[in-house]
Design brief:
Blueprint: E1 11-14, E2 25-28, H1 39-50, H2 73-84, H3 90-96, H4 101-107, H5 110-121, H6 134-140, E3 148-162, E4 169-182, E5 187-193, H7 197-200, E6 215-223, E7 229-237, E8 259-272, E9 275-291, E10 297-301, E11 311-315
Amino acid sequence: MQLVPDIEFKITYTRSPDGDGVGNSYMEDNDDDSKMADLLSCFQQQLTFQESVLKLCQPELESNQTHISVLPMEVLMYIFRWVVSSDLDLRSLEQLSQVCRGFYICARDPEIWRLACLKVWGRSCVKLVPYTSWREMFLERPRVRFDGVYISKTTYIRQGEQSLDGFYRAWHQVEYYRYIRFFPDGHMMMLTTPEEPQSIVPRLRTRNTRTDAILLGHYRLSQDTDNQTKVFAVITKKKEEKPLDYKYRYFRRVPVPEADQSFHVGLQLCSSGHQRFNKLIWIHHSCHVTYKSTGETAVTAFEIDKMYTPLFFARVRSYTAFSERPL
């Protein structure tokens, strides 16, 4: 027999709320891992019977300053919603849950994860089936990611013009990038440029970018019968107000028919390697030109070939460094 002096601190009692001692049982800390599988229930149980008044956390050292555990639960949950923010930074929420047992419980609040699911899928996530929790749905159900940008690099060799003497013909290596940034509210941005990510990625933090060639639009997620999630988007060029040109106001010009131009994009969402939902494969790309005078629409479909390389996700920390609105 071994005597342990602080045995009362190494076991967790489970007793009825009446405290009459009926049905008492205990669980030692060194039990098998199967009993510790559900950390949420374990932490809730420990906090319930640790103090007469439930407190999420306790200060490690005595201090004259007010501790965060004094705040009401409603205020704490509002702080957690600011951590998630309108950009759905659930990664920061998971990091916050590692602070203590109380924060772990708050980070698993079903309402936070339900609001996140509603913001991503809208009315299509009214029911939990086949998932067991809102958190499991957010982690397992295919979705685009918001804490970074999808990037593709295309490289090809193009034949140049023949020299004046006719002895040789130049060859050019062409490189350009495509960037796609998604937002939780259904907006997106796409940019095709030869500039490298180091200079372009910081400009895509907000939709109010001053980049001229940026395309803005909306997207939606669709899951077909083949159980593959696809992203469909309609994007247009950023509208700019052109100043009136009075220099040639006395000359007659040939009127140019006014038209609205938009691009329709279809992408297939995939996972590669150990990362989830980090790859977008092109399945459709077309240009729609609608003439305002006649209302007719001309559609030009681009052939999806080797020039449309897949886009891979790259996480950008600066996108979630600041919160504009709570969840």
